[in-house]
Amino acid sequence: MEQPLEALALPTAQPSRPLRRLPTMPLAWLGVVPFFVFALMFLLLPTLFLIAGAFQDPDGHFTLQNLRDLLAPNIISAYWISIEISAASALGGAFFGALLAAAVVLNGLPGWLRPTLMTFSGVASNFAGLPLAFAFLATLGRMGLVTVLLSSLLGFNLYRTGFNILSFWGLTITYLYFQIPLMVLILTPALDGLKKEWREASQTLGATPWQYWRMIAFPVLWPSLLGTTLLLFANSFGAVATAYGLTGSTLNIVTILLYAQIRGDVLHNQNLGYALALGMIVITGLSNVAYIVLRTRSERWLK
Amino acid sequence: MKRARLGPWIAVILGAIYFLVPLIATFEFSLRVRRNQYSFDAYANVLGDPHFQASFLYSTLIAFATIVVGVMLVVPTAYWVQLRLPKLRPVIEFITLLPLVVPAIVIVFGYLRIYNSSSWLPLTGSPASTNVLLVFGYVTLALPYLYRSVDTGLRTIDVRTLTEAAESLGARWPRILFTIIFPNVRVAIIGGAFLTFAIVIGEFTFAALLDRPAFGPYLQLVGANRAYEPAALSIIAFAITWACMGLIQIFGRDRRTGVAARP
Question: What are the domain boundaries of chain A?
């Protein structure tokens, strides 16, 4: 940082010389060409190719048959299980994340807890994929520490209850490990945005804490809460590695199905594979668009 | 706040249990290789495995390439948009957010169809060009974080004045970019770089589907074939993530003193 400042401090011999004009406006767009070429080649075209392919038959003619074929029972159930797991882990992550964030931000807990939680959240929200799957296999798998301790200390056989780490609940509990921290990271600034004056003003006017939360804090926070929940949903909907590491290909969720389709055309129809991808884009797209809209709404209050 | 402190404490303690127990359990599991006796054999096995070393080195190199390409793409673009094309900002922001909308597995699916060996640009045709494709793919994945980080960094400095001052002293574009803009957003670049490293180092989907010998597919292979080594790898991966986040914080602290030192 010192270098440019030193350069600026150099005495200049021609202070009154008019600034050399920057390239004129018509050529200014040249500066963003590399970015747009990159985005086109490695983001937009690959996606558009799949979307176009979803509406074509193997000979390249327009058809809606692929979308109709998505209604096959095994594909519908894959989407449905994915949506269920994503919704459960998003709602759970949002709920517990909000509780944790509120506990640390709003209630006079020791000061060191907050930076600790924030740092840990930064780490845990990035601790996903295969290592996370291994960690939960070592915890709640058949030989995992918690499973073994429960049965040796309490005589409680977790797997007798129908629980399985390779199932809906197992996957949801695992996903929460990165969903809760993500909620904490995104919601904390929003909670900081609740101004002290609002609470004081409401108290002066005789409001109870419950009324303050219901009529002031919650209406300000709900776009953040709902928006972040949607982001969490999209986040787990597109997850591949954690699920693959936990369940191999035993659980029929849509990312695993698409993975198998890319590897070996298990649907026996390339274009149906594109339609499968299109369905995923539509679902994550809807939840992200809603997130961005709600985000802009909530930022109005938190400036 | 005078309300009961019990509730928040319960929330924090339950949270601590949920987040710490898997780490403890994983660590304990990784020590179980020998019967009736804890040992670090799993770590020795993993670290001594030539495949571990090769795949980790490969992913590290790919991560560095991703950071270099990403920074060279993002910084000039963000700078130029801020200086000359502010109207394009919403468009660029929208594009940089797209990788959060389109799942990684869908993006790589598109790559495999567009850049396969019989296409107009057969990037998956040879290992070297597939490496290039992998790096570009990772740049795409890192785009939302890298762009945000750099854009925020650029907003805290007066890009226009710096540029005009440099121009009045006769500096040309490369010099302005490399000796003025880059050093001024150094902290943002470093933060984005460590985050990119954390994302790339264990990434599985791209590497597996492009069939590259990266760390992610290696993790999967070990996970499918060994009992205790995966737990050791999990602990190692957690330590790496922790190191990346810790370094971001350390350099982030650097930023405040840097800003304060500016006249």
Answer: 72-302
Query: Cβ B73–A49 below 8 Å, yes or no?
Result: no
Q: CA A19 from chain center: how many Å?
A: 46
Half-sphere exposure at residue A252, Cβ-oriented, CA atoms within 13 angstroms: 9
* Separation in Å, CA of A77 to nearest CA in chain B: 19
Secondary structure (3-state) at A62: strand
Which backbone phi and psi does A56 adopt, to 5 degrees?
-125, 150
Closest CA to A81 of A275, A282, A252: A252
Taking Cα atoms as reference points, which of A142, A149, A148 lies closest to residue A167? A142
Interface with B, mutate which of A2, A36, A123 (most B CBs under 10 A):
A123
Q: How high is the ipTM of this complex?
A: 0.88
pLDDT in tens, B190-206: 888 988 998 899 899 99
Distance CA B166, CA B79 (A): 14
Hey, what domains does chain B have and what are their CATH numbers?
45-261 (1.10.3720.10)
Q: What are the Cα distances from residue A164, in Å, to A106, A251, A273?
A: 37, 11, 29
> Any idea which fold A72-302 has?
MetI-like fold (1.10.3720)
Please state the pTM of the whole predicted model.
0.86
Contact yes or no for A209 and B3 at CB 8 A = yes
